[in-house]
Amino acid sequence: MSAPGVNVTAMTTTPRTARTPKAEYRCAECGWQTAKWVGRCGECQAWGTVEEAAGGSVAVGRGTAALAPASPAVPIDQVDTDLVRLQPTGVGELDRVLGGGLVPGAVVLLAGEPGVGKSTLLLDVAAKAATSGTGRRVLYVTGEESASQVRLRAERIGALRPRLYLAAESDLATVLGQIEACDPQLLVLDSVQTIASADVDGAAGGVAQVRAVAAAIIAVAKRKHLPVLLVGHVTKDGGIAGPRVLEHLVDVVCQFEGDRHSRLRMVRAVKNRYGPTDEVGCFDLTDSGIEGLPDPSGLFLSGSGLVQPGTCATVTLDGRRPMPIEIQALVTPGTEKHPRRATSGVESSRVNMTLAVLQALLDVRLGGCDVFVSTIGGARAVEPAADIAVALAVASAETGRVIRAGLVAIGEVSLAGELRPTVGIDRRLAEAARLGFTSAVVPARTAREARAPEGLRLLPAASLAEAAQHALAGLSLA
Q1: I need a labelling partner for 455 at 20 to 30 A (CA). Which of 121, 134, 380, 435 fits?
Q2: Does 280 lie in the same domain as 307?
Q3: What is the CATH number of the domain that holds 312?
Q4: Does 183 lie in the same domain as 105?
Q5: Residue positions forming the annotated binding site
Q6: What is the maximum span of the chain, computed from C-alpha positions, in angstroms?
Q7: Tens digits of per-residue pLDDT, 6-38?
Q8: Which superkingdom, per the lineage (predicted)?
Q9: pTM assigned to the model
Q10: Structural domains in the chain (count)
């Protein structure tokens, strides 16, 4: 029973004021909002980017008062460009990728796998900048190693310079203090994922921390016209670690690539606000440091002078840079029920299609044979223009006939055995002539448009059969 004088019905049926839950969590990538935390963004499907938003939902665009600008807008033709003149780094291959050098105030992100040589390259760049004629002061901030470890590497590669300053810091405020105290003309930060701000929740390398550190460094760079080189980590999938906004904030994004078992290292620009994104820089990583390779042909061509079956040279394009590559093939009798098809440095699917064309259109019997196709020096020939070189190398290995001396083959092979045109043929032929090749097998349609360099004879071929006649004299055709 209820107490006297108490209306039970009124107590139980009193309506509650409806409250709309506020969106207290926000995706750091796309701005999607939700009332509770989730591990995956419901809009962009990114993992680990949903964070608590300070103060819940934020109203945008309400009551914003206009302020007088600190500097009025000026006509575009009157903007001063003296402050953004390119400054060479002293490393020619890196300048090639950057478009001529570093722009004051530019922030460059260099990402790559562990052990590929990022720190070695940037330490060499810092040493060269500190010894240039301008006498620039360089600050190298390391958050991964101690100062002693960096000093040992500097001794090994010959990078000890009096105007190269070294600081081992992992706190953002301390790093900014080092910049103010040293007042450098170049800053190297190794790496952005190891620096943390005390004003931001989370461990170093997290989404919020990386965004806050990058924003603070970029603000200092723009204010002081200070060029900055940032080292970035990569994920297991090869992407740059951290929020995608990091790549949008910086001015230049470079990928440092290389096989652990090869000395060759390549730097390519993925994003560049001041230059092209189709240039590639080649480096040679040795025990004594890293050196630029203006002419990497010595790593990709055997140069032994031995004339033997199963080898054919081609010229691929990596960006705008022609890269000479030697394709080697080996054909042996199969010992198992299913023949082996092994490749290294070439795309296996294209090799399998090329082998099928060889068996269907030429009298090259590969059904019961193991076929191995590889490149020299860790080079990668993944573009279609290397098809004809792969086909001729395999045909040479199977028949035992040697390919004509001084010959280079360039062209894509279709499933019908036709040679299709390739882009950049003039740059490819010029590089072949520079390296001493005397003849080049090219698609017939390409030969009509190409300009043959002096000393290089073009051998037009409309089909794979014609290409084999040019390169392998006496080959029996189907």
Answers
A1: 380
A2: no
A3: 3.30.230.10
A4: yes
A5: 112-119
A6: 117
A7: 454 444 444 444 444 455 788 877 778 888 888
A8: Bacteria
A9: 0.75
A10: 3
